[in-house]
């Protein structure tokens, strides 16, 4: 599978809806949309940022917790790499195209908070409850 073949407009729409429902304080709609995201990500392939064949781990808070960046399409990946370069994090970064369960040991790590989709733009953390 080529990076140009990865496209997830439906997931991007879900992410936008989560933000809209949050602004409207509609928790029921947020939960419904999160359920749709959970179903969506099970069967789809994503661009996962890696370094030395391991997922890139971005620290989140100060106690060892981290998130792993994923991207919904080639443009989001390009924007993510620009974001990494601004934060001096772009060296040695590559990508793989896999399902989110590719790194099975992540879900068992108590410091893993989830995947951050499209870190450079409207991003969304797909937390472990959705995996």
3D structure, described in words:
- There is one protein chain.
- The chain is an alpha+beta fold and 131 residues long.
- The chain has 3 helices and 7 strands, in the order H-H-E-E-E-E-H-E-E-E.
- The model has no long low-confidence stretch (mean pLDDT 91).
- It has one domain.
- It is globular and about 40 Å long.
- Helix 1 runs antiparallel to helix 2.
What is shown here, in short?
The chain is α+β, with helices and mostly antiparallel strands and 131 residues long. 34% of the residues lie in helices and 24% in strands.
Question: What topology emerges from the helices and strands here?
Answer:
Layout: H1 9-23, H2 27-42, E1 46-51, E2 54-55, E3 58-59, E4 66-71, H3 74-86, E5 94-98, E6 112-117, E7 124-127
Parallel strand pairs: 4-6
Antiparallel strand pairs: 1-2, 1-4, 1-5, 3-4, 6-7
Helix pairs in contact: 1-2
